[in-house]
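Final report, closing paragraph on structural work. Over the funding period we assembled a curated collection of sequence-structure pairs, and we close with a single example.
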Amino acid sequence: MVDDLTAPVGSRGRGQMMGQGFAGLALVAAPLVLLIVLVLFPTVSMVANTFHVTGEGGRAFSLAKFAAFFADDYSVENLRYTLVWTVISCGTALSISLGLALYLRFSEGRIATMIHALSLFPLFVPAIVISYAMVRFLGPNGLFQLLLEKVGFTGYTTPYLTPVGPYIAFVWESLPLPVLVLSAGLAQVSDHAIEAARDLGAGPVRIFSQILLPQLKRSLLIGFALIFLGVVGSFTVPYLLGPPAPEMMGVYMQRTLGNMRPEEAQVQAVILMAVAAIVGGFYIATMLRNQRSR
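Its predicted structure, as stored:
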């Protein structure tokens, strides 16, 4: 009799679970279809197209398009310029973010709260607004130059339309995410461990190198990946602030496509995707190791 009473309840429970499962699949189906149709399929088709050439015998596998890219000095210079300044921007932004995260970890009060809010402020400012603000502030006859002239300094050279212009904007724009990631990593370090190290005579440098830094390795790698992926394919900031030559790859691809050379633009995009995939792979591997350790 007990089995007869509980059987319908169990079947109803299984029915509810199945209904919830189908509801979840229905919610995921629409964005998944859009992802496949609008992103995945065109990307796979584009990548496949770059490895084929059309001749008299039809389409054949070939690396000729990539060879043409690396044979062009201007294309290689643009790729080198993009990677070098991306790494420089990542290193600078990550160093500043680490300093801010350490300060916020061991500081309290209104000043610390204000600094925390200011460090997150670029997260809510569009890139185009940042770019135009930099032009008005650092450009020729901008506010910064006028302030320097007020104190008698007349040798100012604007970073506008030089590699330094996008670099400054990249660093400022890239601060919020690594600050959040590093702050979360520092929050996991116990105060008791730091106090015990101080009681044993350890100074700030030793505490940082032997206690804090080992706990921050994953956070630093995640922060580097987030900054790198955000900078390497950027368009607005280098387009408005950067030099006409060499060009960041995002600007170079847009100009190539605008010149009615879509196949060359596809090759440039695939090369940039390969670079981003390497860094993204380290990011995903770090996240997976972090989940397994938990």
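The two ends are 45 Å apart (CA to CA). The first strand starts at residue 52 and ends at 55. We thank the funder for supporting this effort.
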